[in-house]
Amino acid sequence: MKFGYQLSSITPYLQTEDDLRDSLHKIAAIGYTEVQLQGVPYTIPDNAVVSALRESGLSCIAMQEDFPVGFEDQPQRAVERAQACGCRYLSFAKWPGLLTSEEELNRYAEALAPVCELAERSGLIFSFHPIGPDFMPLEVVPVYERLMKRLPDSVQLTFCVSSCFGTGVEPADVLEKFKERVDLVHFKDVTFQPDGPHLVPLGEGNTDWAPIAAACKQAGVKYIFAEQERWDRDAFDCAAASYRYLQNLDF
Hints:
Elements: E1 2-6, H1 17-30, E2 34-37, H2 46-56, E3 59-68, H3 75-84, E4 89-95, H4 102-121, E5 125-128, E6 137-138, E7 141-142, H5 143-150, E8 156-157, E9 159-160, H6 171-177, E10 184-187, E11 189-193, E12 196-200, H7 209-219, E13 223-226, H8 235-247
Parallel strand pairs: 1-2, 1-13, 2-3, 3-4, 4-5, 5-8, 9-10, 10-13
Antiparallel strand pairs: 6-7, 11-12
Helix pairs in contact: 1-2, 4-5, 6-7
């Protein structure tokens, strides 16, 4: 099991070729060697993304987009970028909109079928990334479980642990239920302050990640990615703090 960095954490710093190159060098200088790609606009050519990754020495393990919006109704485009960057995985989250009925689940699964086939024909592992509402129950069974049952067994689960907090779903149960089918996990920490929840570097929030890391190891997880999309201080300082914390976990 290895750890890396989810680039959606620094989306505002990935919007031009120069910023992308500079930001990837900063992430590599911290010590990260693997990343998940998200937040880089398609206005930046794929060859520029590949060049920036190569120059920084970072390996791009996976790419994530929202479906249908992030695929821009052109799944081939997302697949091409994932392939160009050497990704093994193509993850997707349901956005916008929620799945609130069996009918919506069926329609969504049907819309995903050709995208899944395209990804797999292209040598990619397709993976569903549930967000908070997807862990809520629909007639007792959580929405994400209902969707996964409608998708081919080859489709994996990209598990953002913090997304299930407060839903009644326990991280260990998710990892056990999808053992050997959840290669990618996101760790995102939070602390509660008078004005509400704040995302913070790993180890500075309310979560004890050690037992969750142990459960990941038991479930056959291959990569854990640090993630933090909002910051109360410099974003790269936060990335460095998460890196130091992950170094001290048992991998």
